[in-house]
């Protein structure tokens, strides 16, 4: 990663994605989180103020470690503990079936191997666990979609690999999630840049991954390895509902 991608972009994102409109969306998307939460693309922690009190712990994944510095104040002020877990959503250092929810905001556009990353999110979610997301992506309007295709190379080079034209709903469903609810709408800005997908999807029952003999949520970075696992045996799929 170069200086621009490593140092400039996370700071720019910290400003651009901190507006009032996005704050309302963040609050909505985070409102149904509880228990053990994995946040993919944690960035500078702009979702932290919106974690509801029912959240016990957030495990954060993001390759841009400068975001951690930018997030320091938000994390310090949050009653919800945040632990940095790793750098790449496509290879999550967690055992199967161990988190209650996954939160992802404006990140599926950027993850290079988004198919693998979604498969990983599904793998680590407990049965019945949910993915909460807001993302921009492919517009259903062919005219707008054509512009998205045209602008995509430019967007990718200036916005750290961010794609304008990913079909977020189809990607989520293809990864083995059932859409519980989905709202799509245009953001207030340029249509090609802001077709939003906001929703909740549940880990479908088909083809569930079985826990690989590892009890609980092994989480943590570095040689110290996993943080102590909570006993998750008592928690049934019924703990999360609409
Ligand atoms: C547009 S920013 C959004 C940040 C944050 N989610 C927010 O809403 O403010 C996209 C984020 O995705 C992160 N990202 C890129 N590749 C990733 C990967 N392979 N795994 C996890 N996060 C990734 C970037 O570092 C960046 O922080």
CATH superfamily: Vaccinia Virus protein VP39
Can you count the helices? Answer: 6
- Give the N-terminus to C-terminus distance in angstroms: 40 Å
Largest sheet: 7 strands, mixed
The distinct bound ligands, ions and cofactors come out as: S-adenosylmethionine
> Could you state the order of secondary-structure elements as H and E?
HHEEHEEHEHHEE
CATH class, anyone? Alpha Beta
What is the compact description of this entry?
With 242 residues, this protein is α/β, with parallel strands linked by helices. It contains 6 helices and 7 strands, in the order ααββαββαβααββ. It has one domain: Vaccinia Virus protein VP39 (Rossmann fold, 3-Layer(aba) Sandwich).
Features of the shown structure:
242 residues; alpha/beta; Rossmann fold; seven-stranded mixed sheet; 6 helices; 7 strands; globular; disordered C terminus; binds S-adenosylmethionine
Please explain how this structure is put together.
There is one protein chain. This protein has about 240 residues and is of the alpha/beta class. The protein is globular and about 45 Å long. The protein has 6 helices and 7 strands, in the order H-H-E-E-H-E-E-H-E-H-H-E-E. Helices cover about 30% and strands about 25% of the residues. The chain binds S-adenosylmethionine (SAM). S-adenosylmethionine binds near residues 64, 90, 106 and 107.
